[in-house]
Design a protein that fits this description.
alpha/beta, globular
Amino acid sequence: MISFVLKRLSAAIAVVAFATASSAQDFPKRPVTMIVPFAAGGTSDVIARTVAEQMGIALGQTIVIENVAGAGGSTALARASRAEPDGYTIAIGNAGTNAATYTIYPKLPFTPDSFVPIAMVAKTFGIIAIRKDFPAKDLKEFIAYAKANPGKINLGHAGVGSSNYLICKSFVTAAGIDATLVGYRGAAPALTDAIGGQIDGVCDAAASVSQSVNEKLVRGLVVGSTVRLATLPDLATSAEAGLPEFEAQGWNGLFAPKGTPPAIIAKLNAAARTAVETDAVKKRFGELSTVAPDDSEHTPELLQQLVARDVEKYRKMLADDAK
């Protein structure tokens, strides 16, 4: 009897394994949804749409963008974690949504283990930009103004837990100032308010704010990078501006729900690698002051290492923000 049951069980496992392999071989047979944790127009959204178009070409299927804003990206990640692990729902994330959020929101319905890394797709650079009529003309004057008016300067970001929030936290910590950080449902509405003068400035990535700086809708104050950006050659680096402690170089990566078959992850990884190596993506990334991963940075394992590193990094930085 036991022998019969074991044979039946082995047969069932073989059927499931065959079905999984067949499914992976045929993947994708329909459009793939890529969840973006913020409103349209922000850094993650722009990068997602740029990469998704070329990934879709590589896969032979359309990748549909779904913007799910709220709670610094955790609303979207909760949705992604509950999706069927079949490769047809993936999400783009960053150090905020996939690392810092676990300290800021310790009671989340998901953990780092709820996701399987696919690939890093972009490296980004953080900028502090201020409304064009702000009285300070450079970083030194801005910091002096902030210290003379504690709590009165307000800087917008894409929500607590977002990468833009981390840019804000890194900046105010390095500058030693007391500023009010104002959360929005995405980078785009925060930038809109800075342009309109409703807030004093924004913490954002070059991908979504550089055009507004070049069009003089806002004034770039500093970029948290070791080198100047080609799209903003006049914007000083943090070291040049006298604040070398301000570092804001981030990443964007793709994730799938836990349980997604390795063969499907491999197909998605290959498509992501192909996408970021296309001339179309390289050109668009150049316009956005965003950098594609190096040859050694495409693997899921590398993205997993970044998540583990940043979970610990922001656990230390944001302990006081935990709710």
